[in-house]
Amino acid sequence: MVTNQPRFIEVSHPIEMGMKTYPGLPEHQAEVLLDYDSSRERYGGQAEFLIASLHLCGNTGTYVDSPCHRHRGGVDLAGLPLTSLAHLPVVVVDATGHNQRGIGPDLLRGVKVQDKAVLVHTGWSRHWRTEHYFEPNPFLTAEACDFLLEAGAKFVGIDSLNIDDTQDLARPAHTKLLGAGVPICEHMTNLAALPPNGGFLHAVPIAWVGGATLPVRAYVMKFE
Fold first, then answer.
1. N or C: fewer beta carbons within 10 Å in the chain?
2. pLDDT tens, 100-131?
3. In CATH, which superfamily holds the domain spanning 9-14+58-223?
4. What is the DSSP-derived secondary structure letter of residue 187?
5. What is the pLDDT of residue 223?
6. Cβ distance 29 to 55 under 8 Å?
């Protein structure tokens, strides 16, 4: 029965104290600026509030890269149009059975990606918050990125440590996709819960002028 009521599927990791996203990058820190007890006195015993600050690296948890992450003069987070981040039709590429780390165009042929968010399901997120997560990861090859750009993909996400081979310092996936203005989302999760087609992705960071990368609470809306 079709009800037109959306089902929301989370595809981002929660940000928790003590977690590590990428080797060598600092872990985030939280600070309570005003707690309930202190604030209650300030408000004459009639109300209480919790006010805290969160200090984090842009590359924390599940995050979106803007073009200026890779390219000088590229569009920053504030310059990314909402049309490239919100209510994008989703296509999921199942790479869980792929026997090589590099995911090439062969897995993408026949997949309709025009104007869609392409989410690559590698299964790597099952290692999240373990040391195995930081070992050589599944990634998209340069040829796969060329294919996605030629086919008109609007957004590319992956549930892996990096969309590139971390051993390749040229970072061709970042170079090609961000160079074409296509946002990248890394460290996604729960992609196994998504249908191959039919959902709509929302992965919107704050409009940070000059910001290159920032965590998002990414989710997919699936209309039943």
1. N
2. 999 999 999 999 999 999 999 999 999 999 99
3. Putative cyclase (3.50.30.50)
4. S
5. 87
6. yes
HEC per residue, the chain:
CCCCCEEEEECECCCCCCCCCCCCCCCCEEEEEECHHHHHHHCCCCCCCCEEEEECCCCCCCEEECHHHCCCCCCCHHHCCHHHCEEEEEEEEECCCCCCCEECHHHCCCCCCCCCEEEEECCHHHHCCCHHHHCCCCEECHHHHHHHHHHCCCEEEECCCCCCCCCCCCCHHHHHHHHCCCCEEECECCHHHCCCEEEEEECCCCCCCCCCEEECCCEEEEEC
User: What is the residue-averaged pLDDT of the chain?
Assistant: 96
Residue ranges, CATH 3.50.30.50, the chain: 9-14+58-223
